[in-house]
Design a protein that fits this description.
It contains twelve helices and twelve strands. With 377 residues, it is α/β, with parallel strands linked by helices. The chain has two domains: 29-84, DNA polymerase, domain 1 (Orthogonal Bundle), CATH 1.10.150; 90-376, Alpha-Beta Barrel (TIM Barrel), CATH 3.20.20.70. This is Probable dual-specificity RNA methyltransferase RlmN.
């Protein structure tokens, strides 16, 4: 088996491991609930209702620049902005493809770290894929972000600000043929969301709280992915949330999954799936099984049959992902006939299965590719 680097798990993760620490950004209103924002504003000598005003601009009107919040007196606006509206994301590059329906943004954070997010427009919905960490410590060898390693966790506001910015892009009408309102958020960008547990859960609450507390999205339209951090998966089941849990499985057997998803060396397939079924039982939500189709690696018919046996009768759905290969990688996508046979076998086992829509190949669409390109330029 291929030798793999040590898995890095964030320091606030309930699994108990420790990774390198880095300076977090200044406090932002999205780090706080409305009462927390009101406390900051009153400490500045301003009326508490100013917190609602500035929150309405940010979450309700998608205005991120203090200078545009003209219904606040200039002096008050400057004081509040200094405490609650620091600039968190500096645009480095923004590219579009799919006739403008897919837009990928690369951001530089206050410490120079790079993160990515993607806006995807469909006829019936607008989805944003956001990052929860700068880099990733899970070391999955076929993933561009995993190859880069972990830099640090993102703050709650750094996570939320990606969605607010791209919600504003959608509201501007740039996604032709799609609604103008952001409706779905998936935590499938850079990083392992459950390795930044506390801030990701806080971000989910902020994204789903009604404006001006938050962005007002439906919890059922939020998906949180994980490679299988079992203690965090079980903790998430007790949060009282109704988000979709997406498990990045990628192999149904421990021998292969140990190589493709190194955290499997700590929590094996059976234990990870047991935690997934616990989540489904506690929340009533169908678990999404994410499975990247990798040529001659995990796409054999017998693995489709094994996966079908593991999942049959469960509250689950399989989302097969045509691999978006990274430059220089030895990994490649499965041929379409192989993919179709994999789908056929899963459906024959009674497992709901779809193939993910391929977006962004022309713009370094695989997670981490844009950031990797920026680093090497």
């Amino acid at each position: 088996m291929t030798s793999l680097p040590l898995i890095q798990i964030a320091s606030d993760d309930p699994t108990g491991s420790t990774s390198r620490r880095a300076a977090m950004p200044p406090r932002h209103l999205a780090d706080l609930d409305l009462s927390g924002r009101q406390a900051v504003v009153t400490e500045l000598g301003e009326s508490a209702f100013r917190a609602r005003q500035i929150s309405t601009h940010y979450f309700g009107r998608l205005v991120r620049e203090p200078a545009r919040m003209t219904d606040l007196p200039a002096a008050a606006r400057d004081r509040i902005a200094a405490e609650l509206l620091p600039n968190l994301l500096t645009p480095v590059r923004e590219v579009a493809t799919d006739d403008g329906a897919t837009r990928k943004a690369l951001w530089r954070l206050h410490d120079g770290s790079l993160v990515e997010s993607v806006l995807m427009g469909y006829p019936d919905r607008v989805t944003v894929c956001i990052s929860s960490q700068a880099g990733c410590g899970m070391a999955c060898p076929f993933c561009a972000t995993g190859q880069a390693g972990l830099t640090r966790n993102l703050s709650t506001a750094e996570i939320v600000d990606q969605a607010v910015y791209l919600a504003g892009v959608a509201a501007s009408g740039l996604l032709a043929g799609s609604p103008s309102r952001l409706s779905h958020v998936v935590f499938m960008g850079m990083g392992e969301p459950l390795a930044n547990y506390a801030r990701v859960v806080a971000a989910v609450r902020r994204l789903t709280a009604p404006a001006p507390e938050g962005l007002g999205l439906s919890q059922r339209h939020v998906t949180v992915s994980t490679v299988g951090l079992v203690p965090a998966m079980r903790r998430l089941a007790d949060e009282g949330l109704s988000v979709t849990l997406a498990l990045s499985l990628h192999a149904p057997d421990d021998e292969l999954r140990d190589e493709l998803v190194p955290v499997n060396q700590r929590w094996k397939v059976a234990e990870v799936l047991d935690a997934a079924w616990h989540y489904a039982e506690r929340t009533g939500r169908r678990v999404s099984i994410e499975y990247a189709m990798i040529r001659d690696v995990n796409d054999q018919p017998w693995r489709a049959d094994l996966l079908g046996r593991l999942l049959t009768g469960r509250l689950t759905h399989v989302n097969l992902i045509p691999l978006n290969p990274t430059p220089g990688s030895r990994w490649d996508a499965s041929p379409k006939p192989v993919e179709r046979e994999f789908v056929r076998r899963l459906r024959a086992a009674g497992v709901s299965t779809t193939v993910r829509d391929t977006r962004g190949r022309e713009i370094d669409g695989a997670c981490g590719q844009l950031a990797a390109a920026a680093v090497t330029q």
